[in-house]
Specification:
Layout lengths: L11 E4 L4 E3 L8 E6 L6 H19 L2 E6 L4 H11 L5 E4 L3 H6 L4 E3 L13 E3 L2 E5 L5 E6 L9 H14 L12
Length: 178
């Protein structure tokens, strides 16, 4: 189980327009926001990534770099980038499901075409959002087994203002007996 204040798993992935993303080479002044999404087939993901695209500038102003990643191949990732109008948000593709598991993501199997008429991949990961500090430790995470009711990026920007002002520590780190 991935826990705040522990080292994040390795994450190296190709992106559409920014070459290879390697989490260990990221050097934001505050954190890196990694948003794992289900793929092109997911209409909820499209809307969610549009929100992240709109919010990326505000996150960057606070020292947070962003990337959205799925197990889709390059062509489907490009279609998603076009669909959401990705200009600021990096789009990564080809996430191995073994890596998705290391990040604690749930894996689902295909149920055919979705409500928007796009075939689901045979297997794909469910969503997760992570804030990773420059020292590669997990600051915050949210992992879901469904595409619905995800963390709100506008609220996250407000929360980051509080975190910055108060030097608020990562929480949820205790793993001892209770």
């Amino acid at each position: 189980m991935l826990v705040p204040r522990t080292t994040a798993p390795t994450l190296t992935i190709n992106t559409l327009q920014h070459g290879e993303f390697d989490l260990t080479r990221e050097n934001p002044s505050l954190m890196t926001l990694v948003c794992f999404y289900r793929g092109l087939h997911c209409p909820v993901c499209g809307n969610y990534l549009k929100e992240l695209e709109r919010t990326t500038s505000a996150l960057v102003e606070r020292g947070v770099s962003t990337i959205a990643i799925s197990s889709d191949g390059e062509d489907r990732a490009r279609q998603m980038a076009d669909k959401i109008g990705a200009h600021h948000l990096r789009i990564g593709y080809g996430l191995p499901l073994t890596v998705a598991r290391q990040w604690g993501l749930y894996i689902s199997s295909s149920r055919g075409k979705t409500s928007i008429g796009i075939e689901e991949p045979e297997l794909f990961s469910e969503p997760g959002v992570f804030l990773i500090k420059p020292d590669q430790t997990v600051y915050w995470l949210s992992v879901q087994s469904m595409p619905f009711a995800r963390p709100n990026f506008a609220e996250m920007v407000q929360a980051l203002d509080f975190v910055i002002k108060n030097d608020y520590p990562a929480r949820g780190e205790y793993t001892g007996e209770v």
